[in-house]
Amino acid sequence: MSLLYNLGILFYGFFIRVAALFNEKAKLFVDGRKNWKKKLGSAVDKNASYIWFHCASLGEFEQGRPVLEEIKKQYPQCKIALTFYSPSGYEIRKNYEVADIVAYLPIDTKKNAQEFIRLIHPEKVFFVKYEFWYNYITELKRQQIPLYIISAIFRENQQFFKSTPWGKWYRKMLHSFEHIFIQNETSAQLLEQIGIKDYTISGDTRFDRVAEIARGAKKFEIVEKFRGNNVTLIAGSTWKPDEELLAAFINNSSDVKVIIAPHEVAPANINRIQELFKKPAICFSKADISDIDNYNVLIIDSIGILSSLYQYGNIAYIGGGFGVGIHNILEAATFKLPVLFGPNYLKFKEAVDLVNEKGAFPIQNSTGLKATLNKLINDKTSLQNASGICKKYIEKNVGSTTLIINKVFNKK
């Protein structure tokens, strides 16, 4: 199985180099790994002690970030090496000031794994949520360097839990972890079935992250004036199907103001969104505080401020549910906003939990969106109840970071 895996990695490396000739993301993937040994060797402080965090992309980085930053705070003598697999993570966080080294993870060949670990020589290693790279895991185990995975979540259909030859081979990787920090009881039961006892149900570190974001939220006077005393809907990380549904509702509603922060902020997409609305709409970059209260729709045509904007809302709509899956709902819920989203949410534990608790509401079409929004807007008791549910859900799930650090560093 190892031979087949390694051949697959070599073929993948070849095809990604071919794709780089035509695809910008693939080009970033390839170019970012060129001369990695030389670049890493010159960046490493050979006299320092490193803790290595690896994240697939930006979402996993945000998940691991609370643990990374708390370790840096409590153990400032340790240096942090942070790696990404995807350009969408690395390119945004390559200048992240808390990490001493930020790099792409070299492709998972045996030689790359040996060289990378030799250069970093980490004391401890944290993989976040999903990453399982055979050669890196094997080499860390061989060198007896403790490896942890945090905020992991397992499902029965994953390879680890199948009785196939591939399943048994993948399962060995889980046994190489020093300890596995998982999100839920279902994951615990699956690990027990394959004989893994070194786990802790620690929850999801994203709750700690969103709570921290809420405490440090930026203020926007212009957004506060835009909102006024109106019920305000914050639509975050939206895609075309979401935007068309929202526009149909807003164009026939006189009681709501909307702040829409699309996933894609290219000018052509912003123009398309603006044309959807019959009500007065303006882009954030062009808004003026002197007349902002005359508009019904505020379109956010920049990135990096959405998490702070939720403080100005009463209800949130999170995009992606009519595509491959919804975006982050916790950033809205931490501000006590009931959350609406499309039907593709079942892979996200927090969404399923809040739907069951009546703090979140999946919608299938424009009829469902209209009915749900009208109920929350016109029935103050329903809005307050859903808001309270979101608040309590966040409060009861914070604390994962402390639990992980206490376990890893043997603190009581």
TrEMBL record:
Pfam families recorded: Glycos_transf_N
Q: What class of enzyme is it?
A: transferase
Pathway(s): Bacterial outer membrane biogenesis; LPS core biosynthesis
Looking at the UniProt entry, the stretches that span the membrane are 6-23
Q: What is its main location?
A: membrane
Any idea where this protein resides? Cell membrane
3-deoxy-D-manno-octulosonic-acid transferase N-terminal domain sequence ranges = 35-208
Gene Ontology terms describing biological process: lipid A biosynthetic process; lipopolysaccharide core region biosynthetic process
Give the annotated active site.
E60
> Which SUPFAM superfamilies does the UniProt record give?
UDP-Glycosyltransferase/glycogen phosphorylase (SSF53756)
Entry GO terms, CC: plasma membrane
Its function?
Answer: Involved in lipopolysaccharide (LPS) biosynthesis. Catalyzes the transfer of 3-deoxy-D-manno-octulosonate (Kdo) residue(s) from CMP-Kdo to lipid IV(A), the tetraacyldisaccharide-1,4'-bisphosphate precursor of lipid A.
Q: What is this protein called?
A: 3-deoxy-D-manno-octulosonic acid transferase
> What species is this protein from?
Draconibacterium orientale
Taxonomy, top ranks, is: Bacteria, Pseudomonadati, Bacteroidota, Bacteroidia, Marinilabiliales
